[in-house]
Design goal:
With 482 residues, this protein is α/β, with parallel strands linked by helices. 59% of the residues lie in helices and 7% in strands. It has three domains: 1-25 and 55-178, 3-Layer(aba) Sandwich (Glutaredoxin), CATH 3.40.30.10; 236-364, Serine Threonine Protein Phosphatase 5, Tetratricopeptide repeat; 375-482, Serine Threonine Protein Phosphatase 5, Tetratricopeptide repeat (Alpha Horseshoe). The longest helix has 22 residues, at 460-481.
C-alpha cells in the first residue's frame, strides 16, 4: 500500500515527547513544601467510578520475544518493526495508548512483523546489548536477513510520522542492495546502523554529512539533524553540538522533533565552560521553545506540548528567570491535569503522572503530587511506577521514612536496569537517614548489577558513577567508625 493511501486513513494524528534513561522527578531545587501546607486536591481531579478497558493495538505485537519475532519475519518474508520501550517511559505509554491503537497503522502489518520489547526485562538483555539506546521509545525496522537496521527512530512519533518512517524504512530495505553509500539515504542508513550499535562518533559524522547534503530535504533532513545533535551530545562534543544547534534550530520539522532539537541545544549549552557562551546558547533555545509553546507544531499532542513547556521551564531556571519558569510549569500542569481527567482508564491517565508530579514539585505543591500518586498506586497495585515517583516526591520535601518505604515497594515490583536505578535512590535516602551501613550494602548491590550490564563503552559511565558513590560511602562509614 502506498504512503499516500496510508496517510489518508490517519484519523488521529498524535505527537509525543520522549524519555531518556536519566529521567527523574524534577524540581529538587524548588521551594520545599511541607505536608499540610497546601490542600492536596490533585488526587480528586480524575473521575471516579468504572473505567472502560484500554483500547486494543491496531496490529498484533510479538511481546518480549525478539528471536521469535525475527524468525517469524524471516519466515514470512517481512521486515521486523521493533518498539523498544520501558514501563517507566511516559512517551512509550502515550505511543501505546494513542498511536499503536490507531487503525491507520493496520495496513503496515501486510509488510511488517511487529515486536514490543521491554528493554528492562532480563529476558531481553541480548536485544538491549545488541542495539544501543539512550532514548525511549526507540523504534527500529530491521531486515531479518542479516539483521541490518534499515530504520532507526529515537523518541516520539505521531501517527503520520510513524507511517512515513515505516514507508521510508521499507523503501530502504527494498533498495538496500542498490543503495549509494554517498547518497543522503545511504549516509542516513549508515548513521542509523552506527547509532544502533552504539558508535555515536561514527553516527554523528554520518548524520552530519547527510544533513549537509544539498539533495536532502523535508522529513529526511529533520531526521538527519536530530540524529546529528543527539549523537554529538552523546559523544560529549558540547561545543560542536551548540554550533549545530544554533545553525539549524529553525530547520527541524515534525510534531516533537523541533522540541527535542531545542532541548539538546540547551543541554549541550549547560556543559560549555564559559558563562557567557552558556547564556547565549540557552537564549537561542529559549526563544525557539517559546515559539513552539505559543504555536505548537501540527499534530502536537498534550504530551508534546507539555514536554515543550517542561524544556522551556528548565532552560529558564538555568537562565535565572524563575518567574517565567514557574509560569511555564503552571501552564504544563493545567494541560496535563485536563488530559488525565479525560483519560478513560487509570492506565492511560498514568501516562501523565511523571509530568504532573514534576510540575507539582517544581511549583512547591508536593502534597498534591503525593495524593495523586497514592491514588494511582491503589489503582495500579502491580506497577512499580507510582511508588517510585512517590519516593522522589517525598525526597523533595525531606520526608525520608516515607521515601524509604515507597522505594522499597518499587524495588519489590521492578526489574533490570530500572531496579538498579531505584537502588541508587534507596542508597541516597539511607544516607540522608544516616544509615551508612545500609547505604553501603545497597550500593554494593547496585555496583554488582551495573557491572553485569557493561559491554564495551555501553553502560560503563553508569557503572563508574555507582562505583564512585560506593567508594565515597565506604570512606564515610570508615571515618564514622573510627
Amino acid at each position: 500500500m502506498q504512503l499516500s493511501s496510508l496517510l489518508g486513513r490517519a484519523a488521529l494524528v498524535v505527537g509525543l515527547a520522549s524519555c531518556s534513561s536519566g529521567a527523574t522527578t524534577a524540581g529538587a531545587d524548588a521551594d520545599e513544601t511541607k505536608a499540610g501546607e497546601t490542600k492536596a486536591i490533585g488526587a480528586t481531579d480524575e473521575p471516579a467510578g468504572p473505567k472502560a478497558p484500554p483500547p486494543e493495538p491496531a496490529v498484533d505485537f510479538v511481546r518480549d520475544d525478539y528471536a521469535g519475532a525475527l524468525a517469524q519475519a524471516k519466515e514470512q518474508g517481512k521486515a521486523l518493526f521493533v518498539d523498544a520501550w520501558a514501563p517507566w517511559c511516559h512517551t512509550c505509554l502515550s505511543m501505546h495508548h494513542y498511536v499503536f491503537t490507531d487503525p491507520a497503522i493496520k495496513p503496515l502489518a501486510e509488510r511488517m512483523v511487529f515486536a514490543a520489547v521491554d528493554t528492562d526485562r532480563p529476558e531481553n538483555k541480548a536485544f538491549a546489548d545488541k542495539y544501543s539506546m539512550n532514548m525511549w521509545p526507540t523504534l527500529l525496522v530491521i531486515n531479518p536477513e542479516g539483521e541490518r537496521v534499515v530504520g532507526y527512530w529515537p523518541g516520539a512519533a505521531s501517527t503520520r510520522e510513524l507511517l512515513a518512517f515505516a514507508e521510508r524504512s521499507l523503501q530502504t530495505l527494498d533498495g538496500q542492495s542498490e543503495l549509494d553509500p554517498s547518497s543522503p539515504a545511504g549516509l542516513l542508513a549508515a548513521a542509523r546502523e552506527a547509532q544502533a550499535r552504539g558508535d555515536v562518533k561514527a553516527a554523528a559524522k554520518a548524520y552530519g554529512e547527510a544533513a549537509r547534503s544539498e539533495s536532502i530535504e523535508g522529513a529526511l533532513k529533520s531526521a538527519a539533524l536530530l540524529g546529528w545533535i543527539q549523537t554529538l551530545k552523546a559523544s560529549r562534543q558540547w561545543k560542536r553540538c551548540v554550533e549545530v544547534g544554533g545553525e539549524f534550530l529553525d530547520a527541524v520539522e515534525g510534531a516533537a522533533r523541533p522540541v527535542d532539537f531545542a532541548r539538546y541545544l540547551a543541554m549541550c549549552a549547560n556543559n560549555l565552560s564559559g558563562v557567557t557562551e552558556k547564556k547565549q546558547a540557552r537564549a537561542l533555545a529559549i526563544a525557539r521553545l517559546r515559539a513552539l509553546t505559543q504555536t505548537p507544531p501540527a499534530g502536537a499532542s498534550v504530551d508534546d506540548r507539555a514536554d515543550a513547556l517542561d524544556a522551556l521551564a528548565r532552560a529558564l531556571e538555568r537562565q535565572g528567570d524563575r518567574a517565567a519558569a514557574r509560569a511555564a510549569d503552571e501552564q504544563r500542569l493545567a494541560l496535563m491535569e485536563e488530559a488525565a481527567k479525560a483519560a478513560p482508564t487509570p492506565e492511560i491517565a498514568a501516562t501523565y503522572d511523571y509530568g504532573r508530579a514534576n510540575a507539582y514539585v517544581a511549583l512547591g505543591r508536593a502534597p498534591e503530587a503525593i495524593a495523586m500518586l497514592e491514588r494511582r498506586e491503589r489503582e495500579l497495585p502491580k506497577s512499580y511506577e507510582p511508588p517510585a515517583r512517590l519516593a522522589t516526591v517525598y525526597q523533595s520535601v525531606q520526608r525520608w521514612p516515607e521515601a524509604l518505604a515507597a522505594i522499597e515497594r518499587a524495588l519489590e515490583r521492578s526489574y533490570g536496569p530500572r531496579k538498579l536505578r531505584y537502588m541508587s535512590v534507596k542508597a541516597d535516602i539511607q544516607g540522608r537517614m544516616n544509615d551508612l551501613a545500609g547505604q553501603v550494602e545497597t550500593l554494593r548491590e547496585e555496583v554488582t548489577g551495573r557491572r553485569e550490564l557493561v559491554r564495551g563503552d555501553a553502560n560503563r559511565a553508569a557503572f563508574e558513577e555507582a562505583r564512585k558513590r560506593l567508594q565515597r560511602a565506604e570512606m564515610t562509614l570508615r571515618s564514622r567508625s573510627n
